[in-house]
Amino acid sequence: MTLFISPEGPGLAELARQALSSTQRGYDLLAPKFDGSPFRTPDEVLDATAQALRPLGPFGPGLDLCCGTGAGVERVLRRVCTGPLTGADFSEGMLAPARRAVPEARWVRADARALPFRDAFDLAVSFGAFGHFLPHERPTLFAQVHAALRPGGLFAFPVAAPPRVGSLPYWVLWGFDTAMRVRNAVWRPRFVMYYRQFALPEVRRDLTAAGFEITTLALDSLGRLPDGSPRCRLVLARRRQ
Fold it and tell me: In which order are the strands placed within the sheet that holds 106-109?
């Protein structure tokens, strides 16, 4: 995440109002200017994901989990799925612009921890949403995705390499998470958004326990770090047949 204030995005006062709301209400408020905010997944990440998924398909029905304003449906699922497209999000405010952007898709208001789907999709994707789930909620979240997929279905999402300890991005994320912890300790309702609680080893463990087989792909178009490792990987979690 790059922190900046765009002319098209929310101002500081609007961000403060969002941050003092619940997670759901905050995104309802942010929705009209979300695509101009620093919280939207960059197009280059979406395009790299679509490029990596294309050789693994084509897929039939596709789901964008925590879809926000619909960028994952528009730039990823549209390119790799031949079946019906569905976006699910708990914020009705976010779903409104998604419906306008991709009117042919099905848009469902739903909590990712209690999805209304069973054996419905060949592919599920998600972008930038996992910071809204505390570590103890991941087993439930992954179990819901597993149930929503057909046997052999694929759950795919990008994971950025963690910043080098002591670097500026490291301290920015550390500071953001610390501020959120303090805010949630002294203010209600809580706004759950943490950037340092989604470590790949723990995520692999929880996905495996939910019944997935895990591989990863380097998203080489997003570059590599000085040590040669990829800046971003695509996690591919396949529901066992």
Answer: 106-109, 85-89, 62-65, 121-126, 149-160, 232-239, 212-218
Query: Cβ–Cβ contacts within 10 Å for residue 145, how many?
Result: 24
Q: pTM for the whole thing?
A: 0.90
Domains of the chain: 1-40+184-197 (no CATH), 42-162+199-239 (3.40.50.150)
Phi–psi pair at 15, nearest 5 degrees: -65, -40
Count Cα atoms within 13 angstroms, Cβ side, for 88: 19
> Residues 95-141: pLDDT tens digits?
999 999 999 999 999 999 999 999 999 999 999 999 899 999 999 99
The predicted pLDDT at position 3 comes to 45
Quote the CA–CA distance of 101 and 50 in Å, as a whole number. Answer: 18
Measured distance CA(27)–CA(44) in Å, rounded: 23
